[in-house]
Amino acid sequence: MLPNRMQLNRTVEEQLKKLKANTGITPNVSARIAFFRSIESDYTYQSNIDYKLDGSLILDKYTWLGKTQVITELLLKQKYPELKGKDLQIAWAAHVEHGISALRNYKLLSTLIGNDNL
Length: 118
Prior knowledge:
This protein is mainly alpha-helical. The chain has 6 helices and 2 strands.
């Protein structure tokens, strides 16, 4: 299970804030989108690489994950059965970082969701 308090890498946090300024999507919601995009891309977190969780936005697990909490934790446990607690959080954060790279340059919500008619 993921810890109750979670944070991200400072760089990712800044990218989430920039995306919020451009699209209005809050960092927790865009982190969810980024996580699932990363999972869909078959990205795999490498636990031997030092990954820093140095962001200042420390939120509880429910705020970060919302109604996707159960499925997020199940996907992480399925993909990384050997990880627990803080290590599982680092894997989640790495997936958010990987997924945000595809989202960070969007300027409009309509292009993010793929509907130019909004």
